[in-house]
Amino acid sequence: MKQLAAVCSAVIWGSGQCLNKQKLKGLLFFILQLIFVGIELLTGSLAVLTGRAEPAFRNAGFFTKGIWGLVTLGEIPRESSKTLVYDHSIMLMLAGIISVVVLFLFILLWIWNIADAYRGRKHIEEGKHISSIDYFRILWSSAFEYIIITPGMLLVIFISIVPIVFAILVAFTNYNANFIPPRRLVEWTGVETFLNIVKIKIWGATFVQIFIWTVIWAFLATFSSYIFGFLQALFIRAKAVKFPKFWRSIFILPWAVPGIVSMMVFRTMLNQEGAFNKILLGAGWITEAIPFLSDPFWARLSLVVVNVWLGFPYFMALISGILITIPQEQYEAAQIDGANVLQQFRVVTLPAILASTSPQLLMNVTFNFNNFNMIYFLTGGGPPNPNFQMAGSTDILISWIFKLTLDQRMYNYASALSILIFVIVASVSTWNLLRTRAFKEE
To answer: Quick check: 440 pLDDT over 60?
Structure first.
């Protein structure tokens, strides 16, 4: 009988529950099946079932057309403005992803319906009949947390996961400036885009050099800000410094001002005719203007220096708070053992600071790896580099992807590079998470 109830619910949702004398629950499952069938029937015509060739799957229901569109990416391009029946590959791909996700959710409900019918009949055979009302009461009390987070999870699926899947799938197509639907349909190309990044010399060389600079930039930007912020925190706490709160407030200002505003101001000041060059020329320290933004070396150095200005207040505030928490008894014990100031710093202060700020350091490296704002608003990725494929000397991977997407419309290459960035960043973040104390305690 358990198998019979399960088979009945597999064919007609809720029928197994009705056999188990749980009519309310069976009705709810049957309504879900009606919704599923209704979506398919009411969102398309039945022409595909009549054998007519012209409409094909293009006019089928939501799920059928979605899967067809995701597999084929369309069959009829729009050859002219008079073409009335045509396909749009990207819209079909997006609709296909959504239909697959919705279909998967209905499959989960279908499996739940079958399993519930089987368990309900098993309980009856064991003499433990549970009415529909009792079932819902037990479900509410035992799975309250999951019920509450379900709406949020659905939003995450459709707002975050679906776009991510779409971006990943684009990397396996030829979606670029030469294949813009609906005039030209997009086609699946497999891993060809990834192979081109490796095989085509200029693409491979550009990727390697930009990747190396991205890594160097991430570490330089992080540790220069960290060290400078560390030093400022130590100096402000020094006994010889008067009015430490005043100086701390002054040094917090670069962090309080919106970063984009500061970057635009620095971009103006670092120009060939900007304030810095005028001051240096007026003081007689240089004889000609320094190409802060037009020379690769000076542009990269300018990025690091400006990032120190914007980033050190955070580390200064963070480390200042940690310094207060270090017990004074540790310093007194070190003094009794004969340790001088430098030895106290090396044995007491430095280990305490590093132990508390290591996770923030690693996360800041990850942030700077994708610090698009700094590159875009200060140098714009420039100056131009003739050895790079559509990238400048200061471009990092994320700004290169931006140019490939908006300027060159090479969406497949941009998507492939985004996947590579995700793998790198996710690996670093996972490694950082696995090393945290909270994760180890769990």
So the answer is: no
